């Protein structure tokens, strides 16, 4: 604007009338509103599918535990442990799809997948030598990664229909249908997320909207050339328009893909960890701490290591609970000024608690799960 004012100091030479600029204004309004609306719709769609996935994974565990809680024999506990582990595994592998572009870790390499479930997944992938002749396209890691949650969903359905032979008394038909419907909802939510990831934003529409937006913003100063008001007022008005339009464009770009490590992206893995914590508490209420620790071991290799969610953005650091292995000690923060010192004391207490827990297990012969396929009391899972 200042350059135009200098060039047109002797009289208006380069300018655009407001009537000619009005036509571009209507085109920009239509394209830009469509662009932002599309980004918000995609964001809400992803949020809905992700929320449904978390909800149904929790409900599946609660349904299984509540419907079979009256059976307290070892086989029934193994059956519940298998179903709950596979439900958590389905959620973990579904989240692994969303974070693959950031972590570049395929689902068959995540530490939570182990035991017979890992063997089943590896034996049913297209890169397995016995399955290569079924591939209609050249297999790639990304496509194989998308197949893992589907295989885990099949294992979930197999476990559900085995209730007739693994429980003292088969479930009612309505109960079996309820469990199957929860799995169906999980698969549906995962399919929606997969569709979201595999359907890109229409590039021609984005390109056209951005082109007209830049054209509109760069020609706005030409309208003020013949205006006799203050040049500084013109500069301020142009700054506000540019800041508003370009800010909305940047927000739309960020909303197009809400999965990743950006500050406004969904913390999908952290939210999945909170669902795992709910599962551990549910299992502990029905089957006791021993089986909850068994599930926690399969989902987290070290029993004495705190879960990531205890230091995640979802949980406040002022009222933080240690693990059951650390005696349920509550860590309280008295003030923000003492935060740094209290965190240092926390780390020291945690280290001492871990050492004490290890020594106690060595002295009392507490169980260690060497094989994740085996339950704490039985050799079959």
TrEMBL record:
Coiled coil keyword on record: no
Pfam families given in the database record: Bestrophin_2 (PF25539)
Principal cellular location given in the protein's record: membrane
Basic residues bias (residue ranges): 360-381
TM region(s), chain numbering: 203-225, 231-255
Keyword Amino-acid biosynthesis recorded: no
InterPro entries in the cross-refs: YneE/VCCN1/2-like (IPR044669)
Region (Disordered): 355-381
Entry's Gene Ontology cellular component terms: membrane
GO molecular function per UniProt: chloride channel activity
Topology with respect to the bilayer: Multi-pass membrane protein
Keyword annotations: Ion transport, Membrane, Transmembrane, Transmembrane helix, Transport
Highest rank taxon of the organism: Eukaryota
Compartments, as annotated in UniProt: Membrane
Protein name: Zinc finger, RAN-binding domain containing 2
Organism field: Seminavis robusta
